[in-house]
Amino acid sequence: MAIRRVRAGLKGWGGVGAMAAVCALALGFVLLLPLTQSPGPGGAGTGGPGVAEGVRTRAVECRAPEKQTLAPSRADGPTIEAIKNRAGARRKLVVGIDQNSYRWGYRDPNNQGAQLEGFDIDLVHRIAADILGDPDAVQFKAIPTDQRIPAVQSGRVDMVVRTMTITCDRLGEVAFSAPYFKTGQQVLAAKSSPVTGYDRSLAGQTICTAAGSTAHTRLAKDRAAGRLAATADISTTVPNQLDCLVRLQLGEADAVVTDGALAASQAAQDPTVELKGAAFTTEYYGVAMKRDADDLVRRVNQVLVDYGRSGWQASYGTWLSATLGRDSTASKPPAPQYLRTS
């Protein structure tokens, strides 16, 4: 009932943006509705008559951020029309990607032209084919981990497809598609290391994470809560996840914490390192877009529905089955769930 009242109060703010605001609320009490003197989208106050100080209600905890997305649709809207109306050579989908994540988004120097390839890149081509009718109508922009959200918010890119985990905090800043991959945080370390996983063996160890990553956020929270040894050094951060593998190889870090899917690919690049212990979180990758780009979110979600039926499995087999297995929990596309907007 509380969720229904919050949704009703937020009606008119825009599909993804409204629910993103709810999802990102802090614990305790927060101001949900603006003051009557603050105009809404149509110029009228949204607080209702007689409301001078706004309406306060208990925060809704965001427990399943991967479900906070809009139902799929093939319809064009203002965001998609703007992409289609770009002139000449600029008529391309502009996408933020990684070019250093083996099997996800990378350049293979052994291939002619060293073209970008990988699981994320396959998805980008599928989205471009659906929106612009040409899988190659893409302008790729390589962006570091900590610049993914600013790149979307500033309009430098139309979307980010870069092993980006859907989280409640991020939903306050960008909109996400339905999930296209399931993973979890995991520890990577040298095979000879005494580290055994995300446990007490990390005490006194230097742990590398990417700046702005969910791994770094989780480590900071866990250490503050006493779930991670206070002597674990989590100060080593890098712009791109692959840099952590380099730090590990140079002896500047004892362990890396990152998504298990990425860690498995890094282990495939270096036979002296391995995954330690099981994944200790459950996370989902999504396509990030501007919060007000409802039509683009819906269109990408439709692409993901179609891709899950034909294309996703072939891409997984090409890029990820060798490191993650053909029968693992990650070997099937996640079942999407969408917001109820009525």
Salient structural properties:
342 residues, alpha/beta, three-stranded parallel β-sheet, 17 strands
| Biggest sheet statistics | 5 strands, mixed
Q: How widely separated are the two ends?
A: 14 Å
Q: What's the count of strands?
A: 17
The total count of helices amounts to 12
Shape, principal axes of CA atoms: globular
Helix fraction bin: 25-40%
Based on secondary structure, the structural category is alpha/beta
- Kindly report the average pLDDT value: 85
Describe this structure in words.
The chain is 31% helix and 18% strand. By secondary structure, the protein is α/β, with parallel strands linked by helices. Helix 4 crosses helix 10.
Task: Give the helix/strand layout.
Blueprint: H1 2-10, H2 15-23, E1 29-31, E2 56-58, H3 78-84, E3 93-97, E4 100-101, E5 105-107, E6 116-117, H4 119-132, E7 138-142, H5 148-153, E8 159-160, H6 168-171, E9 175-176, E10 181-183, E11 185-190, E12 206-210, H7 214-224, E13 233-238, H8 242-250, E14 255-259, H9 260-269, E15 273-276, E16 283-285, E17 288-289, H10 294-309, H11 312-319, H12 321-324
Parallel strand pairs: 3-7, 3-8, 12-13, 12-14
Antiparallel strand pairs: 1-2, 4-5, 5-6, 9-17, 10-16, 11-14, 11-15
